[in-house]
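[Meeting: bench + compute handoff]

Bench side (C.D.) handed over the final construct sequence. Compute side (W.E.) agreed to return the predicted structure before the next meeting so the bench team could plan truncations. Sequence as handed over:
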Amino acid sequence: MLNQIVFEYPWAFLIIIPFIICQMYCKPKMDAIFFPTIKFLKKATKKSMVLENVLKVLTLLFLTTSLASPIIKDEISIKNDKGYEISLIVDASGSMAQNNKFGIVKEILSDFLDKRVHDKIGLSIFGDFAYVAVPLTYDKESIKRLLKRVQVGIAGSRRTALYEALFLSSNLFKNSHAKKKIAILLTDGMNNVDNIHLSVAIKTVKKYGIKVYTVGIGGVGDFDPVVLKKIADESGGKFFQANSKQKLKEIYDTIDKLEKSKIKANKYVKKRYLFAYPLGLALFLTILLLFRKNRELL
């Protein structure tokens, strides 16, 4: 935790206990023998004694705080290993407007992004055609801001360029050296654009070592489970089906757990010592007490 004030020797505060006990039970009794009228004198100087006692207590408190050695700890983590590289491929064709499917997907994707702290994420959108909306980046906030603006039909609303989207997003990993490359392909339709063949898209996925998780949303006949399962199986991924918001959320949670990044880090602790501040206050109050005593003697 950054900028946290802690004490290296907190047991030093136990010194206050014997002080309190002594104040209660170790009061001088010889004054009354030599000065029978001491009670009247004490009443006359009651205000002065209260101030003096407050100064003593504060002096002890500051001295004890200084002895306990307050420090500010700054933990600095240096990452030794990178997270995953993940391409999100999202269907934004016209059918995604039904039952607010696209809005639900955006909401779940935003939550998924929050969980992938150390990963590079890319975003591709497809409809009549496919395009890379955001290349692989650590800046999750920029993806979330863009997702809010993306609407159904932004890439055309009549067709579903699924194979083109898979091929295009696979090329994001062309120069990647990441050990783990993941793609999550979500659609509620079937490919009906012929500019890229399925075999070419799968070949490109395998060439760059990308594991593809495919997600079909909707009911029977909305998407092609055979094609989505083929893409997932040949790439080493997994095929999922979702017919509700809760099921879709569970799928993304499952993928998150299956592909959890293992980030190693070295932690360095920087300490800033603050004992000089309470010690300086204690010395100031001690001088003030001595000054008051000298004035009383004079």
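W.E. noted at the follow-up: The radius of gyration is 35 Å. C.D. will use this when planning the next construct.
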